[in-house]
Amino acid sequence: MGSGYTELFEEVDKLVDEFDVTAETLQAGVDLFIELAQKGLSGDSDEHGLPMIPTYVTSIPDGSEKGVLLAADLGGTNFRVCSVTLNGDHTFNLIQQKSPIPIDLMSGTSDELFSYLASKVVAFVKEHHEEETKSLDHKFKLGFTFSFPVDQTSLNSGSLMRWTKGFDIPDCVGKDVVALLQNHLDEQKCPVQVSALANDTVGTLLARSYTGSNKEGTTVIGCIFGTGTNGAYNEKLENIKKLDPAVVESLKKKGVTHMVINTEWGSFDNALKVLPTSKYDTIVDSLTSNKGFHMFEKRVSGMFLGEILRQILIDLHSRGLLLKQYSTYDSLPHRLRTPWDLSSEVLSLIEIDDSTKLKATELQLNQTLRLPTTPEERLAIQKLTRAVSRRSAYLAAIPIAALLTLTESFKGHHVEVDVGADGSVVEFYPGFRTMMRDAVALTQLGSKGERRLHINIAKDGSSVGAALCALSE
Ligand code: BGC
């Protein structure tokens, strides 16, 4: 190690320790999650509690569903329009068009955003289904995946509770997002009926059930670890105490026994009773538009990992430990000074760099942040990257273990359980799923539970699931 780095590495070691998540924290997290989930289901929590939103999705597909449906999917980064052909044999075909959401639309007005979304649906229908629209006497059914917390009032209506993941369009909060999309589609004379509203996690749960997870047990959870994070599962009607008794009665008469719950686990432990909180987490929260909310998400999901690391680097620089060639904050490369400019994709490359003197990391930091580094600095940055990602993956085990416990999913001999997951972090971040499993083994489920748990990627799940919802309407 070159001279002058002793203090840096001492500090890095301290931070690595601080970011370590112990078995004790994981188990306390699982207990707290179960407590908050039960409160959420009974309607006994305030706006900072765990939302546990009833979705009005009351049946889980078995793979025999058939039809051609449209799906529109507003995630954290992209908007996708697809047509999904469900073949009725657990398989589907998908045609899709994906467009990045323009940054200025993320903080403009709801009219601007929804008019843009409708125009993308119009263009898609024109390109792929023009002939059918001429001959059809009815409108195409569309399932709308809207990946933000929505207070759902029926399968095809729900008002936005608050924005997450960097969106900030105040006039949209409290409005019915289905009506917003439908109005703009109608204005643009698009022959499409928005017939279902689904969170991306609900879509993932349904899609994974449709494609036949049976080989590895029943699918219990659909979850996303991408720009944001969240999970959905199927709950017994009688446990959802906050549902209107009249609704429960009428559902029971139809033979319904369960309803899918969108937990919005991004908002787990907003009160920070168990979640580890470094000074960097506090700064990151202060930079967001939903301060004090989604505190779990802000430690776990892709949007935040790079920003946490960036805050650490800035701090170590200000203490004269790192990037010493820059004498002041203002002289640091512009991109390193820009919030949110360090993406989790860069972290994923640093994470697995095993080249001599971390040359691959050098290239990455040069290309993405215009940041020259010494080999020692890169080693420090790699250690910190691994600490941030490991904390994220370990914390990710909490809601999974808690929901499997809450639903008594491991009851019975040899029961295997499937969890359908989607999102850039769980799909592409090296080692994320393995670290998450290691952490599950440290929870109350132990290594026995971990061995019987299968976490599988549900590719395109959110769109396919929205189409399945539209079909059931
Ligand atoms: C949203 C959820 C969504 C998750 C994953 C969160 O920020 O609140 O509704 O499911 O991101 O996309």
Automatic annotation (TrEMBL):
Pathway linked to the protein: Carbohydrate degradation; glycolysis; D-glyceraldehyde 3-phosphate and glycerone phosphate from D-glucose: step 1/4
Domain Hexokinase C-terminal: 221-471
One Pfam entry name: Hexokinase_2
UniProt keyword annotations, A-Z: ATP-binding, Glycolysis, Kinase, Nucleotide-binding, Transferase
Biological processes per GO annotation: glucose metabolic process; glycolytic process; intracellular glucose homeostasis
Molecular function via GO: ATP binding; D-glucose binding; fructokinase activity; glucokinase activity
EC number annotated for this UniProt entry: 2.7.1.-
Domain of life where this protein originates: Eukaryota
Domain Hexokinase N-terminal: 11-210
Family according to the record: Belongs to the hexokinase family.
UniProt protein name: Phosphotransferase
Organism (species): [Candida] arabinofermentans NRRL YB-2248
